[in-house]
Amino acid sequence: MTPSTTRLSKRSMAFILAGGRGSRLHELTDHRAKPAVYFGGKTRIIDFALSNAFNSGISKMAIATQYKAHSLIRHCQRGWNFFRSERNEYLDILPASQRVDEHHWYEGTADAVYQNTDIVDSYDIDYVIILAGDHIYKMDYEVMLSEHAESGADVTVGCLTVPRSDASAFGVMAIDHAGRITDFIEKPSNPPGLPDDPDSALVSMGIYVFRWKFLRQLLMDDAADPSSSRDFGSDIIPNVVRNGKAMAHRFESSCVRHRDDAPSYWRDVGTLDAFWKANIDLTGFDPDLDLWDRNWPIWTYSESVPPAKFIHNEESRRGVALSSLVSGGCIISGTEVRNSLLFTGVHSNSWSSLTHAVVLPYATINRHARLTKVVIDRGVVIPDGLVVGEDPEEDAKWFRVSPGGVTLITQSMLDRRESKL
Question: Which residues carry the site feature described as Could play a key role in the communication between the regulatory and the substrate sites (predicted)?
Fold first, then answer.
C-alpha cells in the first residue's frame, strides 16, 4: 500500500497535553494531575483521548506531563504498555525535563510540543493532532484528519456547537459559510453566532490538526518571540487565523454515538459539580456516554480483582445496589447503595447507606454511615456513624461543599475533623 492510499491516521501522531493540575477540582488534584483523575468506575480521564486515538487507528502517541505526574505515568505504563516498536507503534511519556536549558520547564501548551520537536521528528509522520488530556468524549479523529487534508488548511480546530448564551466561557470561533475561521475570541462577552444558526456558537475543544512541517516552523518562530505566552489558544491558533488558513471541524460529524439519535457527548469535568454529575449520569437507564460499546471501547489498566460481592439480607441490613455501577473487588456488606458509582475495591459495611455517591477506589465505608451527594477520594476510611449530605452548614465545617451542593471528602479532611472532635 502506498503512502497516498494509507489511512491518514497511519501517517499521524497524537500529542496529548496532560500537564495541568485542574485546580477547580480542588483536593481531588492535590496528589494527581487532572488527566489522572478517576472516572466512570475503572478508567482515568486521559483514557478517553488515548482510546479515541487508538480506536481511530493512530498508533504513535506522546503524552506531555508536568504537574504531579507520577500517578499518570504509572497508569500509562500499566494500562498502555501494549505498543510494539517492531509494529511501528510508540507511546512516549514526556515529563518536563529541562530539555532546552536547566531553567526551562514547559512554559505553555505550545512550548510542551516545541521542547520535544526532536522526538516528534523521529516518528516520521505527516500530521500531528494536538489533544487535551482532560475531557470526556468519543471521537473518530480520522474524520477530522480527512477534512483537514481535503481542505488544504494550515490548521483545523475541533469545535463544539453550543448555545450562544453559554459560549462566553470558551474560546469562540467566528466562521464564514465555508467553515473558515475568520476570528478567534477568548471568552467574549458577546459571542459571534453561526452563519446558519445565529443562536448558536462554535467553541474550541482544544483539538488541533496540523501538518507537522508547518507546525514545526510555527513553533520555532513562536519560541523566538519574547512576547509570546507559548500557548496554542492564545498565540499559535490566532496567528494562523490572521496569517493562514484555519478551518473549523464540527464535533457532530465525528462524534462516536452508540445509537443514531444519541446526542453529541463531550464533557469538561473540571469542577466538582461537573465531575460528580458526569459520573452519576452513568447510572441512568440509557446514559448518553455508552461505556458498554464494544465497537469503540475505552481502554485502560484493568486490575486483577474478584467480582463484586453483596452480602446480608436482613431488614435494615441488606447488601443491595439500585440504579448503580459497582466495580470489581467491591464488597457491599449490609449497605444500601442507590444511584451511586463505586470504583474498584470499595468496601462498605452494615447499616450504612450511599445515595448519589461517587466513591473512588479502595475507600472503606464503616457502619451506620449515611452519605448523600458526595465524592469520596481514593483510600478514604469513613468512620462509624458519619452523616454527610443532610446538613450543609455542618458539612462545610469539615469538608468542601461545592456551589451545587456536592460534598468532597478526603482523608486529610477526616483527620482534621477527628483532631477537633
Answer: 66, 105
Query: Which grid coordinates are listed for 383?
Result: 468512620
Long-range contacts of 316-319 (CB under 8 A, 24+ apart): 316/351, 317/350, 317/351
pLDDT of 100 over the 80 cut: no
pTM of the model: 0.94
Cβ partners under 8 Å of residue 141, min gap 6: 9, 12, 14, 52, 53, 56, 58, 129, 254
Q: Say if CB 189 and CB 170 are below 8 A apart.
A: no
Tens-place pLDDT, residues 246-277: 999 999 999 999 888 889 999 999 999 999 99
User: Which distant-in-sequence residues (6+ apart) come within 8 Å of 329 by Cβ?
Assistant: 303, 305, 306, 308, 344, 345, 346
List, as residue ranges, the binding site. 106, 171, 186-187, 204
Binding positions for alpha-D-glucose 1-phosphate? 106, 171, 186-187, 204
3-class state of residue 262 by DSSP: coil
